[in-house]
Design goal:
Layout lengths: L2 H12 L5 H8 L3 H13 L12 H4 L3 E9 L4 H9 L4 E6 L6 E7 L2 H12 L4 E8 L10
Antiparallel strand pairs: 1-3, 1-4, 2-3
Helix pairs in contact: 2-3
Length: 143
Amino acid sequence: MDEMDRNIIGLLSADARMSVATLARRMKVARSTVQARLERLETTGVIAGYTLKLGEAARQGRLRASVLLTIEPRAQAAIITRLKAIGEIEKVFTTSGRYDLLLQVAAPSTQVLDQVLDQIGALTGVVSSESLIHLSTKFDRAV
């Protein structure tokens, strides 16, 4: 990836609906150059897809939490399979350090979040969990 690729990704991160023609104008290069770069970035997996990013207004009414799990050795595959069945879990990350997994959870209410946390804690192989409820987003640079 070179500077032009990074510029394309930066512009699309700000507005994934930006047309190839607009990208080319902003970068002061030929449309065909941008199109070829996009095709290569997609083919190589650098760009996995195009999506939208919800603003705070769309997220209102959703309680978010990070859940840190310590699991038994060799239980990860089975636990991840069971976590996939819980719709409120948005993302699961493996981690280094004290915890084995970090879960991103979103629920419509504290009651639902409590039920989800009970479900997670009851999974065979989960040794311990710690939950952190998100209060507000100060900034978000996620792509």
